[in-house]
Design goal:
- With about 325 residues, the protein is mainly alpha-helical.
- It has one domain (about 95-315).
- It is built from eight helices and no strands.
- The longest helix is centred in the last third of the chain and has 70 residues, at about 245-315.
- The protein starts with a helix and ends with a helix.
Length: about 325
Amino acid sequence: MTSLSQLVGVAAVALSIVVSGASTWAQPATGAGQQVTIMPPASAQQPRGIVVPPRSAPPSVAPSNPAPAAATDTHPATARPADGIGPLQELSPWSMFQSADILVKAVMLGLVFASLVTWTLFLAKTFLLTRARKGTSAALARIANIRSLGEAQLALGSTVNVLSELLAAAVQEIQLSDASAEDAGVKERAASRFSEIVRMEARAVRSGMAIIATIGATAPFVGLFGTVWGIMNSFIGISKAQTTNLAVVAPGIAEALLATAIGLATAIPAVIIYNHFSRATKSYLDLVGRGSGAVGRLLSRDLDRFRGRIVSRAAE
């Protein structure tokens, strides 16, 4: 009887499980991943000797695409300077010069001095060349219709210029030569004197041009030396401060570039002034050459008249 009652109980439990499963499948799904637990009816008595193991919860599955973590703001709205570094200093030319290294200051002062020398020579040589050109042109106009060296000296009077020196050299050569000397020899010696005077005049008008040429050729490289030195000091400051903040980088580089700017501001006018004086000097020396030719023609006329007198006296 005991086994029969056990069989009846097992059959009742099985029947209740089937009925509960059918009702569960008939209901709509409650949601993806929701666990459904089938419980036997309360009236059903669990048969003795049968142990139903407890159901373990299904392992949770991690989502394939996890939500990204909140991004950390690595670029704050207001960048703060590093410790010990204040706001950017004023980058005016004077402040950059004051904060520059002693060597960079020396380079800048040297370039400024070279620029002053260039402009001083420009003003002085412009005045001298202008006065010499006007004096020589006026003297040539005075002796244009003169027939002898003596008349030319009287026409020029006490005027002191290259043309008066040429006239004095021609007269002196005639006085030093013998009366029986050939005209060709006198003219040759006078031409030698003329050439020496013209060379001296060329050296005089070209004085200072070598300085201007040197400044124009070397000033950019001197400024570049100051630039290299300033940038090197700037990099040393960056390495010591261990930061690339603009307050550390900008001043040193700006000082270095200021040296280059001063070098260019010195060299460019020097080159232009040198080219200007080269043309002006050539024009003036051409004028001096014309004066030398005019005095040579006066000398030739005097020699011809002198030989003519000698011939007429010999004929008498």
